[in-house]
Amino acid sequence: MNKQLTIQPNFNIIDIFKMDFSHKNKSNYELYKSGRYALYFGLKNILSTNPKLKNVYIPSFVCPQVLMPLNSLKLNLVFYQIDENLLIDKDFLEKNINSECIIIVINYFGFSSDWEFFDSLKNKTSCTLISDNCHSLFSKYKGKELNQYGDLSFNSFRKNLPLLSGSQLFYNNMDYKNSANIKMRSPNLSELFYMMRSFKPSFIKSRLGDTKLVGHYRPDGNNKYFFDPSSENKIDLISGNLFNNYFKCVHSITSHRQKNYRAWLNYLPQSEFIFINNLILDKDTTPYVFPCIAKNEDIMHKWIQWGNRRNISIINWSNKREDLNTKLRLMLLFPIIPDKNVKKILEDVDKN
To answer: Which residue stretches of the chain have pLDDT < 70?
Structure first.
């Protein structure tokens, strides 16, 4: 049995027997296969309503997966800067945003962006806002769920829950509201492999399911393996009938993730890392990972290898954009999945 401590939770086969087939989709969201499909169809709906929208402002610190639907829709991408504290370049946005712009706002690692700023900017310019909550499924800002911010918002189930697929696309602006669609599909081959990941022996290091690296995405290449809007793009029927079970356990999930977050904060040496102090872990935050910045490349590689030797998945989350903040290139993400006790795991590591 695979005992690896991973970023994403492993699917539990037993959960198949917990599926609720009486579940009915709410009218304020649609269910898709993943966040990138939700973003694509949400944007497509926005553009059909307002074809003048062509410029999409997106953070320079972004996963390549987010770029796939934008390039597929042939939108003009304008990148705004994010610094090492995950703060946005407000001056740049205030000077450039107008009513013909879309801004994608990423709520990094379970922590909210500055929605007071973005809401104020929208009031001044009538721009269109999209809230990317792929890291922030259960987090809130000012007591309000992050999926309620922006004209549209979307999330990602598999990043946060032991599911095979899934993303909710929320319509918060009635001008863009679409009819809800609850059609589901059978799990594909990659998802079936992913379902069996918890049974993978620890000595096998390769991934099961989605084995190709999304980080190698090229806008001018064939990326249908990662993103194909013409394919079956809805949530799989197993995840579609399971996700509500986890929504009933938000308090427990949040509590465990916060404890595991603090375990890494107390364990990692301050001499080797830059901690992002403005990320405030309050009662409204359900963290996705513990993020911090290695002080140099040697330290970054040292900790990735440290994790590999101890069956702990530690990843370097950045992209290869030339304008990316230098420190953000050394961002490391440490796993905090709620079904593990990270403090106990680290105590056992030290004993050995």
So the answer is: 1-2, 22-27, 179-182, 197-225
127 contacts: CB under 8 Å, gap ≥ 6: 97, 98, 99, 101, 102, 103, 121
DSSP 8-class letter at 271 = T
Instruction: Tell me the C-alpha distance between 316 and 174, whole Å.
Output: 39
Report the distance separating Cα 319 and Cα 329, nearest Å.
Answer: 7
Summarised one tens digit per residue, pLDDT across range 226-252 is 788 888 899 999 999 999 999 999 999
> What region does 109 belong to: left with phi over 0, alpha with psi -120 to 50, or beta?
left
Q: Does residue 129 share a domain with residue 18?
A: yes
Q: For 205, phi and psi rounded to 5 degrees? A: -90, -20
Is 268 in the same domain as 158?
no
CATH code (residue 193): 3.40.640.10
Q: Strand, helix or coil at 84?
A: coil
* Contact (CB, 8 A) for 256 and 204: no
Pair 323, 197 in one domain:
no
Residue 98 lies in a domain: yes
Let me know whether 228 and 269 are in one domain: no
